[in-house]
Amino acid sequence: MQNIEQSTLCRDVPISTLCDVKLWNHFSVLTVLYIPFGLLLLLFRLLLIGAYGLVFPIFPRAKRKSVYRGFIRLLGIRVRCNMTPEAVGHHTAGCVVASPHVSIFDHIPGLAMPHATLMIDKADSPLGKFVGYILFKGSNSSYWLVRNQRQLVQCFREWHKDPEKHALYITPEATLNNGQALFRFRPEFMIRGQPVVPIALKVKLPFGLSPSPMMSPGYIRFMTILMMPYIHFEVAYLDKLHYYSREQTPQAFADSVQQAIADYLKIPATHWTRDDKYSYREQLKQL
After folding, report:
1. Does residue 176 form part of some domain?
2. Which domain holds residue 173?
3. Residue 7 domain-assigned?
4. What is the pLDDT of residue 273?
């Protein structure tokens, strides 16, 4: 392990600090006893999501956001926020909302907020596409399907015509962290002429379950988390930051957004990147 950490340039903390290798941080007898109940809960929640997909069209669009907030509570998902949804709407309208990426469920609290718009490239599995479609439509939120630079430019061009219409939620790390530190933020989506609102995000799961196991496929993470008796998010919207090209380089601005979140969460803001993570992962496979 020590050789892996020293194989790249020196950083402020070891790359292993940001990466979870196991699905469970610890595995107890209580966890084993709970698993049969968790499987039943998983089945119930999947049926509930499917039922929600059938009934949400009967609600007026203006009411879907509040209905969605009640629905995710039925799923055992609690979102504790430092602002009311209405205040979040005023604070984030026309902004890029930059959040750390701590689990594959990170989009769920964002979709509960006004103007929520997420950028999507692909889903990990057919199950992810199915659930994602229901959550987006059922929360009356929108998304940008961006597979290339041309589509990205077109989305931003349309946004600039009516900026208050969207709050663009992004994960500038471009990969999952384990809540112990932050990967370096990428600047591409934060220097488009819109203010940036940093989010400090935490997720709490029972039984020592890791929300971001590095070696587990996306569908395994999704189903295991959905088995849990509760999923608790803590969300704090921080002060807006503005990029001035004459005063900062794009990367320096991205670093300032990263540092604001890290300071709030009291964790390190590192210079490790997504590429470093996957290089480290490949080295672990060879051990």
Report:
1. yes
2. 15-274
3. no
4. 94
